[in-house]
Specification:
Layout lengths: L3 H34 L12 E5 L4 H12 L3 E6 L2 H15 L3 E5 L6 H11 L4 E6 L17 H30 L2 E6 L12 H21 L4 E6 L21 H9 L7 E2 L3 H16 L1 H23 L2
Parallel strand pairs: 1-2, 1-4, 2-3, 4-5, 5-6, 6-7
Length: 313
């Protein structure tokens, strides 16, 4: 016979064991099993003949444009610089034998650009929208100390928040009418973990995450899949990482993995090492929130110090 204390201990062990098993199974299912079995996966070729990609001339946006074209979709490329747009559009059209269309737009602006984009997209059967365009800080910095902070913060909010909202307003009606479509909104792991010295950027990406989750709840019954991708570091111009690594993959490698999750996962980092990183930080925060935030802020301060040193050379 067990004593009352022993029984209590067994109950506690069982609860902890169940939670550990639940966590491991969910991690295995979400990151490997569901993706491998393509559970609820969406074939983007069946959603429409055109894909629209914002921030399409570099990094993740360009990779999405290329891989969607590889699947046979015509691609609308939207970005700020016409010369880059024309170059990427010509490359994609030549390599994948699809139609391309370019729209020049500066997403740090607000209302004027969206009426222009709306007119340019009129009549296209848009099956996929990739809301990729985004801005971050020039380097990690304290909220009050960032140089040109008024302009930078305004641009971040316009580019990261208004763009996602307004592009969905433009494209979703056609998807709802046809009862099919995919919207992928790019957030960031910064929305999930402590992000001191990137406060406005992280907050803007938290908006993207929440917006995507609730919009998916509203429109999934109309056959529209709305996914939020929350990547960690990818070797892009924005991250200022020049050489890809296992933890900071190339844009093409990252997007290849992320596209496998369309329809499978509503919300994901898109790349398992980034999921692992978020899990480690969350585990540390569960043990000691103060220690977790201290480690993050020390890391950001080190990055800040190196950036300022380069600027002062």
């Amino acid at each position: 016979m067990f004593t009352s204390l022993e029984k209590f201990g067994l109950v506690c062990i069982s609860i902890v064991g169940f939670q550990v098993f639940r966590f491991l199974f969910r991690t295995l299912y979400n990151n490997f099993l569901a993706v491998a079995l393509k559970i609820n996966a969406v074939d983007v070729k069946e959603t429409g003949s055109w894909a629209v990609v914002t921030g399409a001339t570099d990094g993740i946006g360009k990779a999405y444009a290329e891989l969607l074209a590889k699947k046979g979709l015509n691609v609308v490329l939207i970005s700020r610089t016409r010369e880059k747009l024309e170059k990427v559009a010509n490359e994609i059209a030549s390599k994948y034998q699809v139609e391309t269309k370019i729209i020049e737009a500066d997403f740090t602006q607000t209302e004027p650009i969206y009426s222009h984009i709306d007119k340019q997209l009129t009549g296209l059967e848009i099956g996929v929208l990739i809301n990729n365009v985004g801005m971050s800080y020039p380097h990690p910095e304290y909220f009050l100390d960032l140089k040109n902070k008024d302009e930078v913060y305004n641009n971040i909010i316009n580019c990261n928040v208004y763009s996602v909202t307004n592009m969905c307003k433009i494209v979703l009606p056609g998807m709802v009418e046809r009862r099919r479509g995919v919207v992928v909104n790019l957030s960031s792991t910064a929305a999930q973990i402590p992000s001191p010295l990137l406060t406005v950027y992280a907050a803007s990406k938290a908006y993207v995450e929440k917006f995507s989750q609730d919009l998916n709840s509203e429109y999934s019954k109309f056959g529209v899949t709305i996914q939020c991708i929350l990547p960690g570091y990818v070797a892009t111009n924005m991250s200022k990482i020049r050489t890809s690594t296992w933890m900071a993959p190339s844009p093409l490698k990252f997007v290849k993995e992320a596209m496998k999750t369309i329809g499978v996962l509503e919300r994901t980092t898109g790349y398992y090492p980034h999921t692992l990183l978020v899990g480690v930080i969350h585990s540390l925060e569960a043990v000691s929130p103060r220690l977790s935030r201290w480690l993050v802020i020390r890391t950001m301060e080190n990055i800040r110090a190196r950036a300022l040193k380069r600027l002062n050379r």
